[in-house]
Design goal:
By secondary structure, the protein is an alpha/beta fold. It folds into 2 domains: 12-248, Aspartate Aminotransferase, domain 2 (3-Layer(aba) Sandwich); 252-343, Aspartate Aminotransferase, domain 1, CATH 3.90.1150.10. The chain has 14 helices and 12 strands. Strands 2-8-7-6-5-3-4 form a 7-stranded mixed sheet, with helices on both faces. The chain has a 3-stranded antiparallel sheet with strand order 9-12-11. The longest helix has 16 residues, at 253-268.
């Protein structure tokens, strides 16, 4: 039976071009800064983001944690959206490893309003813990893959700068955001002091993310990466696939967005499930099952039995994510399978 995997864009497989590049990669010891392929990937990543420097890391979680450890000191507070990946999924790294506490705020699009933020930044430093960092996310995963407009991000950066506070952007899917907004990715990156983005999601590389920022920040971030066990040796073998991802795979993300909108349109006509196709901006479709009478877990089980894998996002919501390894025909087939399941309930 054919399996259509819509759980996440993290399930993508490397392209033949990536596999060849990995096999032929020139390598050296990255701890000595001598891996030419890693160095080229970092140079290219910094250039893409309009930053001075970059650091290759095995995962986005390590990239975000390295950034938090570098921007803050133990006992500080950081502001972020309560549905953000850093707060919701990254295992309390901010507290356990960086020694900082979160101030989770709530905003419909995942980007806190400047007024919400200033309430905390303006507090007396003699009576309240220092807020040293604001973390944003674009696209925003748990808000349905929303692409947060540059104007919203810029407003946060301006209020942060007013109080001397740094901004870190979890840009795991920043290229999806740029394409959805119709802007150069540098415009988004300019709204933050540091930016992490993933190579292993829609871009299709098998491993890795990149943290970018100014040269002094990245130099200190390398110390944080080592504390996290992220010192690497002949990492050019995997970095080679990241170079292919950045040079060949960005523009095709538009296809994923189109497929997600097609899937949302097809599913929006089904009874007892709720989808707003207008909110599908990138490659994610959130499906509300609260009126269907079965849990998200049971729905996911039935879907997998029919050949479609989806993710559960709470007791009554499932998430479907399009990516390079799911074709338009497979999207249409998945919609038909889901329609069959719904009609049988």
């Amino acid at each position: 039976m054919e399996i259509i995997d819509l759980r996440s864009d993290t399930v993508t497989k490397p392209t033949p071009r990536m596999r060849r590049a990995m096999a032929e990669a020139e390598v050296g010891d990255d701890c000595y800064g001598e891996d030419p392929t890693v160095n080229e990937l970092e140079r290219l990543a910094a250039e893409k983001m309009g930053k001075e420097a970059a650091m290759y890391v095995p995962s986005g979680t390590m990239g975000n944690t390295s950034a938090i450890m570098t921007h803050t000191q133990g006992g500080d507070f950081i502001i972020l959206d309560r549905e953000s990946h850093i707060y919701y999924y990254e295992w309390g790294n901010m507290a356990a490893l960086a020694g900082v506490m979160p101030i989770p705020l709530d905003s419909p699009d995942g980007c806190p309003e400047p007024e919400q933020i200033e309430e905390y930044l303006a507090r007396s430093p003699s009576r309240f813990p220092k807020v040293s960092l604001i973390c944003l996310e674009n696209t925003h995963n748990r808000r349905g893959g929303l692409a947060i407009p540059v104007g919203r991000l810029r407003a946060v950066k301006e209020i942060a700068s007013k109080y001397g506070v740094k901004v870190h952007l979890d840009g795991a899917r920043i290229f999806n955001a740029a394409l959805a907004l119709g802007v150069d990715v540098k415009e988004i990156a300019a709204c933050a002091d540091s930016v992490m983005f993933c190579l292993s999601k829609g871009l299709g590389a098998p491993v890795g993310s990149v943290l970018t920022g100014d040269a002094e920040f990245i130099s200190r971030a390398r110390r944080a990466r080592k504390r996290l066990g992220g010192a690497m040796r002949q990492a050019g073998v995997i970095a080679a696939a990241g170079i292919v991802a950045l040079t060949e795979m960005i523009d095709r993300l538009v296809e994923d967005h189109e497929n997600a909108k097609l899937l949302a349109q097809k599913l929006s006509h089904l009874p007892k499930i709720r989808i707003n196709p207008e909110k599908v901006q990138t490659n994610m479709v959130m499906v509300n099952l609260s009126e269907l009478g079965i849990s998200a877990e049971e729905f996911a089980r039935r879907a997998q039995e029919e050949g479609v894998k989806v993710s559960c996002y709470g007791p009554s919501t499932v998430r479907l994510v399009t990516h390079k390894d799911v074709t338009r025909d497979q999207v249409l087939k998945a919609a038909d399978i889901i329609a069959k399941i719904v009609s049988g309930i």
